[in-house]
C-alpha cells in the first residue's frame, strides 16, 4: 500500500526521525495524527542502563510490519496512512528505538491504529534487544517489558487472591 512506510534503520547509517513520520502520515483529508516514539531509557527492572543493541531479521521484520499495517487498515478503515520504523544496531540513552505514526480522518482511528501497530511490533516482530548496564554487564531482554510488568502485577494479585488475567491487549 502506498499509504504505508515500513523501515529498519541501521543506527550507524542514520537515526529514526519522528518528524519524517509525521510528515509521511500528514494528509489534507486527515484531522487525526497519533505518534508513538520509543526511546532508550536509563534504567530497566532496577538496573542502570547505558545503552541498547537491537538485532533483527530485516526481511521478516519488514514483512511483519506490512502485515501489521494491513491489520490496522482492516481495523480502522481504508483512510489510513501508517509509518513503522525500528532501529537496528547500537543505541545510546535517549536515542529513538521505534517510531510509529498513524494518520486518519479522526483521532479515534489514529489512536487505535497507532496502538495496534506498536503493540503488534513489540509482540510479533523478530527483534532482539540486548541491554548494556553501568557495571559492564549486558543481558538479552526476555520479551516485552510491559508484559513482564503485567506478569509481576498478576503474581502479586494472585498471591493476594486476585483473579485478573494477563492479556496482550495492553
What is the number of beta strands?
Answer: 8
CATH architecture group name: Alpha-Beta Complex
Residues in helices, as a percent range? 25-40%
User: Helical segment tally?
Assistant: 4
What is the name of the CATH class? Answer: Alpha Beta
Q: Give the radius of gyration.
A: 17 Å
- N-to-C span: 27 Å
Mean pLDDT reading: 88
**Which structural class should the secondary elements be placed in?**
alpha+beta
**What count of domains describes the coordinates?**
1
- N-to-C SSE series? EHEEEHEEHEEH
The CATH superfamily is Molybdopterin biosynthesis MoaE subunit
Q: What sort of overall outline do the alpha carbons produce when their principal axes are compared? A: elongated
**CATH fold-level assignment:** Aldehyde Oxidoreductase, domain 3
Main β sheet profile: 8 strands, mixed
Strand content: 25-35%
Low-confidence stretches: 162-170
What would your notes on this structure say?
There is one protein chain. Helices cover 35% and strands 34% of the residues. The chain contains 4 helices and 8 strands. It has helices at 18-25, 58-76, 107-124, 145-159, and strands at residues 4-10, 32-39, 43-44, 47-56, 81-92, 96-104, 127-133, 138-140. Strands 1, 2, 3, 4, 5, 6, 7 and 8 form an 8-stranded mixed β-sheet that branches. A hairpin with a 3-residue loop joins strand 5 and strand 6 (96-104). Helix 2 runs antiparallel to helix 3 (107-124). Mean pLDDT is 88; it is low at 162-170.
Amino acid at each position: 500500500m502506498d499509504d504505508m512506510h515500513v523501515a529498519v534503520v541501521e543506527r550507524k547509517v542514520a537515526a529514526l526521525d519522528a518528524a519524517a513520520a509525521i510528515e509521511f502520515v500528514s494528509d489534507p483529508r486527515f484531522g487525526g495524527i497519533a505518534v508513538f516514539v520509543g526511546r532508550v531509557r536509563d534504567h530497566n527492572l532496577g538496573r542502570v542502563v547505558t545503552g541498547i543493541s537491537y538485532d533483527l531479521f530485516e526481511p521478516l521484520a519488514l514483512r511483519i510490519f506490512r502485515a501489521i499495517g494491513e491489520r490496522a487498515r482492516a481495523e480502522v478503515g481504508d483512510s489510513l496512512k501508517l509509518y513503522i520504523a525500528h532501529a537496528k544496531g547500537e543505541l545510546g540513552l535517549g536515542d529513538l528505538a521505534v517510531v510509529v505514526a498513524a494518520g486518519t480522518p479522526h483521532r479515534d482511528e489514529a489512536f487505535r491504529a497507532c496502538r495496534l501497530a506498536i503493540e503488534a511490533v513489540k509482540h510479533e516482530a523478530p527483534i532482539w534487544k540486548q541491554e548494556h548496564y553501568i557495571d559492564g554487564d549486558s543481558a538479552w531482554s526476555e520479551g516485552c517489558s510491559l508484559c513482564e510488568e503485567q506478569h509481576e502485577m498478576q503474581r502479586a494479585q494472585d498471591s493476594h487472591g486476585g483473579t485478573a488475567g494477563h492479556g496482550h491487549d495492553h
